[in-house]
């Protein structure tokens, strides 16, 4: 044990306080990171301080924040894990002190070109995993001590927490923005038809539910609703890819089963971990009939004028992503004038303590062949009430007007 | 076997994952962990006893599908025990009933996959 020099002891306490300062918590995460780097540089009497964050897919550390040598960030320095100074810290998850900086010890040319002589770096760890590296450098040769390393580790722990919180917020915001842009509240206006829709994120955040409605060049109306397994940004990204793939296939082939078959092959090859249920339907320009194909999705419900609503009996095919080769059957469903079609995701129907058939019966009960907007509201009120759902919910209602539209008059439609 | 929230017991030499009343986005990762542990135990053949389960969402199905695919790739087998009509309905709607083998009782499952016990 070494005896603590009271003056040095006080100075060290001040240093620790500078880094653990509760006032830092009041800053937003990005400002906190910048302030933390400044303070770290000050207390260690260093010339540079930098945070490199691990980009897991590429296995590279990317310079994300810096004080003293900002060009590290502006030039987008990338260091492979396991290589060079920072790469070694991340790979071995332990501090490294360097008293000799040149191209043999440090990969990043900015550091040795600027004349950095000595460095010390520590891993940033969150949830038991290395998420980055924090290092400081000195323009004059010096021996960083164990006490320096400990102080730096304190700053790194603080920085790791800020980065985690930043990433979580960014993911949530990005997922919500993606969902909003891909599940538009504005639906196309189609003569002879009226539509309404709802998307409600679950209590677990935004999920992978989506719907899409568009008019094909043939004048047919294409209706898609689906549910990608998972939640947050990963599910929203997969959902976005499925949505665009389906739009592309819809232009290429008329057969709903072939459209879903192509989606299956695309997902198998490019997103082998994705799993989704999808309903794909084409409504004829005369609005008389609909062709529906299900990939593991719940069947639509139809309310005919003056009758109680019913679940449309459709033979379903397998979910997208389980590698089933079998063709999914296509069912033709007549749509009488005034009928209201309801497409939805499982979040509306399935709920702990409620079996599927009870959920479907309740949905049928809540539906009438009335204007879609009002029925959407009635259905949400009956099925969800004031108790928020854990799973997200997508709901799309399409109603054929009572008075027939003039033949082939889908022109002048706009797309949401 | 390590502890997970989903109990895994070994019956007649076969690991059996017992799923709770509800399997959803909240506990799907626990299910994944239990399935991985079971697959890693012995020759990669195991059962998932869903007798107590009344609710399973897409996150739960996702875990089951991946475990089934992994078992197939490893020349093993995952067998579901599903007596509950609601879960059977979910499997039918999603088309998983035609992909993942399932039986109504644990006994049936074990009869299919258990190694014959040494005589005596």
SSE topology sketch:
The complex is a heterodimer of chains A (416) and B (120).
Chain A: H1 6-20, H2 29-43, E1 48-55, E2 60-67, H3 71-74, E3 78-80, H4 84-92, E4 96-98, H5 109-113, E5 118-126, E6 129-138, H6 146-182, E7 193-200, E8 207-215, E9 221-231, H7 232-252, H8 256-270, E10 276-283, E11 289-295, E12 301-303, E13 310-311, E14 330-334, E15 340-344, H9 346-349, H10 356-366, H11 372-383, E16 393-400
Antiparallel strand pairs in A: 1-2, 1-6, 2-3, 4-5, 5-6, 7-16, 8-9, 9-10, 10-11, 11-14, 12-13, 12-15, 15-16
Chain B: E1 8-11, E2 14-18, E3 22-23, H1 28-40, E4 45-49, E5 55-56, H2 58-73, E6 77-81, H3 85-94, E7 102-103, H4 106-113
Parallel strand pairs in B: 2-4, 3-5, 4-6, 6-7
Antiparallel strand pairs in B: 1-2
Helix pairs in contact in B: 1-2
In short:
Chain A has 416 residues and is α+β, with helices and mostly antiparallel strands. Chain A has eleven helices and 16 strands.
Q: What's the number of structural domains of chain B?
A: 1
The residue ranges of chain B in which pLDDT falls below 50 over 5 or more consecutive positions are none
Total number of strands of chain B: 7
The average pLDDT of chain A is 88
Q: Give the total of domains of chain A.
A: 2
């Amino acid at each position: 044990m070494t005896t603590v020099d009271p003056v040095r002891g006080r100075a060290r306490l001040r240093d620790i306080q500078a880094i653990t300062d509760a006032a830092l918590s009041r800053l937003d995460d990005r400002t906190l990171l910048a302030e933390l780097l400044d303070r770290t540089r000050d207390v260690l009497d260093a010339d540079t301080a930098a945070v490199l964050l691990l980009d897991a897919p590429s296995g590279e550390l990317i310079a994300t924040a810096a004080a003293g040598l900002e060009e590290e960030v502006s030039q987008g320095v990338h260091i492979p894990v396991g290589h060079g100074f920072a790469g070694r810290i991340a790979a071995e998850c332990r501090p490294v002190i360097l008293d000799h900086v040149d191209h043999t010890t440090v990969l990043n040319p900015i550091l040795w070109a600027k004349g950095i002589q000595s460095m010390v770096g520590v891993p940033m760890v969150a949830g038991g995993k290395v998420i980055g590296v924090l290092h400081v450098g000195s323009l004059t040769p010096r021996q960083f001590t164990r006490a320096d390393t400990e102080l730096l580790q304190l700053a790194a722990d603080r920085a790791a927490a800020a980065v985690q919180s930043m990433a979580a917020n960014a993911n949530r915001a990005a997922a919500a923005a993606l969902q909003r842009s891909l599940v538009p509240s504005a639906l196309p206006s189609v003569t002879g038809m009226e539509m309404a829709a709802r998307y409600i994120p679950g209590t677990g955040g935004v999920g992978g539910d989506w719907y899409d409605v568009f008019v094909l060049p043939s004048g047919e109306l294409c209706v898609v609703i689906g549910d990608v397994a998972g939640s947050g940004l990963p599910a929203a990204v997969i959902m976005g890819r499925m949505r665009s793939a389906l739009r592309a296939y819809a232009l290429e082939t008329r057969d709903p089963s072939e459209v879903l078959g192509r989606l299956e092959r695309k997902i198998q090859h490019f997103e082998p971990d994705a799993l989704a249920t999808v309903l794909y339907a084409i409504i004829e320009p005369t609005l008389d009939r609909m062709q529906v194909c299900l990939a593991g999705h719940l069947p639509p419900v139809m309310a005919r004028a003056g009758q109680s609503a019913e679940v449309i009996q459709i033979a379903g095919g397998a979910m997208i992503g389980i590698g089933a080769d079998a063709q999914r059957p296509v069912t033709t469903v007549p749509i009488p004038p005034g009928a209201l079609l309801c497409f939805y995701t499982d979040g509306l129907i399935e709920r702990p303590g409620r079996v599927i058939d009870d959920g479907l019966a309740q949905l049928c009960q809540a539906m009438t062949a009335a204007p879609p907007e009002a029925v959407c509201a009635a259905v949400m009120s009956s099925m969800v009430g004031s108790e928020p759902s854990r799973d997200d919910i997508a709901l799309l209602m399409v109603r054929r007007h009572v008075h027939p539209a003039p033949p082939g008059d889908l022109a002048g439609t706009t797309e949401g | 076997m390590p502890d997970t929230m989903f109990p895994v017991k070994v019956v007649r030499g076969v690991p059996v994952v017992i799923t709770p009343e509800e399997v959803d986005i909240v506990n799907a990762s626990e299910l994944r962990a239990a399935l991985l542990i079971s697959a890693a135990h012995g020759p990669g053949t195991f059962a998932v006893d869903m007798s107590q389960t009344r609710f399973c969402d897409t996150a739960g199905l996702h875990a089951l599908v991946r475990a089934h695919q992994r078992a197939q790739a490893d020349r093993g087998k995952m067998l579901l025990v599903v007596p509950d009509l609601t879960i059977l309905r979910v499997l039918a709607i999603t088309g998983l009933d035609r992909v993942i083998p399932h039986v109504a009782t644990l006994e049936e499952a074990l009869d299919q996959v258990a190694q014959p016990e040494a005589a005596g």
